[in-house]
Protein: VOC domain-containing protein
Amino acid sequence: MTLTAVQAGAYLHHIALESSAPERLAVFYAEVMDMELSQHSKGEWRCEGPGRRMVVVPGEDRKMAYAGLACRDIDGVAALKDRAKSEGLDILESPSPYLDQAFAVRDQDGHLICFGVAKPDSVKRKGINGPTQHLTFASNDVQAFIDLYHGKLGFALSDRVLHENGALATAFTRSNHEHHTIACFKSDRVGVDHHSYEAGEWITIRDWCDHFAKHDVQLLWGPGRHGPGNNLFIFIEDPDKNWIEVSAELEVIHDRDNVDWPQHPRTLNKWGRAIMRS
Structure:
């Protein structure tokens, strides 16, 4: 199978969240996730930091408007578009303000995923290190997720988590060398489980925790270490109850087969308490 998304070097550039109180949510991300805030037309707010961006638009709480993945170059975008067409996916217009030569598709659960080339950004933004890194969905059907992202868009399958009966609990897919770009948990709901920022080093997670404390934001989960990806993590929650992860030392994959993990608390967190989704 051709790994078209990996060949394109796609990475998670930004996401856009809906909110019934978009200004409140945008202010939270600007302050707590250390970004600059600006308001745009039709109630759209944009938060921008070093390597990270968040768009907030009016709508339903805990719902993603779209995700934007940037490719290495226009050839990668064209190859992904051709792949999507050949797999029978509808090619849609991209609403992303950050991508050029972009297109969008809807995945198996209706999430709008945009691909394009990142527009140049000459502004040197200050802030704690933590680029936007991955997005994880909640879904009733993890196999359908694999069939779409791995089977039709050419993401690589890094790891799976399986229940004792062999049923899928989680799947991790990547579009570059980092362990996962988009993942999916088996759940009784459909939507976003969490999105994540990559701090790079353990010491930077400490800096994020100190920053959260200054804003009276307590940790929801962690610190801990995941099994798949082997990354260190902390979780917080925004005012709309969206989960935010700050991760560090995520596995970099160059050439290995995907691994099957057991659905067990120690798979979710080697160090302590696990939040089991199924």
User: Anything to note?
Assistant: The domain at 4-118 is CATH 3.10.180.10 (2,3-Dihydroxybiphenyl 1,2-Dioxygenase; domain 1). The chain has two domains: 4-118, 132-268.
